[in-house]
Write a structure and sequence with these properties.
Elements: H1 8-20, H2 34-42, H3 45-50, H4 54-67, H5 71-91, E1 96-100, H6 107-114, E2 119-124, H7 126-135, E3 142-146, H8 154-159, E4 170-174, H9 183-195, E5 199-205, H10 220-228, H11 239-249, E6 251-257, H12 259-267, E7 281-288
Helix pairs in contact: 1-2, 1-5, 5-12, 9-11
């Protein structure tokens, strides 16, 4: 991404969630408080007013169908799956939540008041994080740390950071991040997390038989736009290759959720099983293993 401006992908996802919040079906997947927090971060009253009109929403959802059918629903279900994993980890004793490449995600901000005894840490590129900080006031148990994960080592940074405690059981979240890193950096980040004895919830693009990465059926314009905005997809992996990669990093016990599992576990219980859902990105939950 560019060094002097916030991530375009972060802005796009945040606006997609605001759009979804006004849809009678997708709105059921949007977390409480999420739209209001995003409005503060984006500071885009014009978009909020425009999407009040059904005709505008129809046009925007039509554009979605042309570019990546079901991508907005995908954003929402992956967020719900990740939040469920975090809540399960907290119930099991985790007391520190670290969000990598947080963008404009609201999970840590929503949970930090619900769980005041926990410590929340968001790590992101300075340009994106600055926009978020301008909208959200400081609180005692949530910390915003600037770091370029594409270039800088995670473990060394956290070990030297007073906001992070090595004594707290931790869960790390890397949602929509790994595809923007090189293979070398993905491996390094995973090794760092395993070395910090943290659980990891991350998403990854599933490389297909031809070796390409991307959402199934996406319009070629999407990849061109990402390259133009300096946010191209760099990394993806097949499921069979993911297992040895995790093992090499010191992580194991992976639980992978693809579009079929996300549909069955998130959409079907809400009677939303027929909603189109983009395919190509999976959610993986894993934990450190003894060597």
């Amino acid at each position: 991404m560019r060094d002097d401006s916030p991530s375009d992908t972060a802005i796009l996802i945040a606006r997609s969630i605001l759009l979804a919040s006004k849809d009678p079906f997708l709105g059921r997947l949007v977390a409480d408080q999420e739209p209001e927090i995003l409005k503060r971060i984006l500071n885009c009253a014009w978009f909020d007013r425009a999407t009040d009109f059904r005709q505008v929403r129809q046009i925007l959802f039509g554009i979605e169908r042309l570019l990546i059918p079901g991508i907005i629903a995908h954003y929402l279900v992956r967020k719900r799956r990740i939040e469920l994993a975090v809540r399960e980890a907290v119930a099991a004793g985790v007391s520190q939540v670290v969000v990598l490449g947080a963008g404009f995600d609201t999970l840590a901000w929503r949970l930090h008041t619900e769980f005041p005894q926990l410590s929340f840490v968001e790590i992101d590129h300075y340009a994106t994080q600055t926009v978020k900080l301008q909208a959200l006031e400081a609180r005692a148990n949530i910390h915003f740390l600037p770091l370029d994960l594409a270039k800088e080592p995670l473990a060394a940074y956290l070990r030297a950071c007073p906001a992070f405690s090595l004594d707290r059981p931790s869960i790390f979240i890397a949602e929509g991040l790994t595809m923007y890193l090189s293979a070398e950096r993905v491996g390094a980040v995973m090794r760092d997390i395993a070395g910090l004895a943290g659980r990891l919830v991350f998403t990854f693009m599933e490389r297909d038989d031809s070796g390409s990465i991307g959402f199934h059926g996406e319009n070629p314009f999407v990849a061109r736009w990402l390259r133009w905005r300096s946010e191209p997809f760099l990394w993806g992996i097949s499921r069979q290759d993911l297992i040895p990669l995790l093992a090499d990093a010191g992580l194991g016990h992976p639980v992978i959720s693809d579009d079929k599992i996300l549909r069955e576990s998130i959409l079907v219980p809400l009677d939303l099983g027929e909603i189109p859902l983009a395919r190509g990105e999976c959610v993986c939950i894993c934990s450190p293993v003894s060597r």
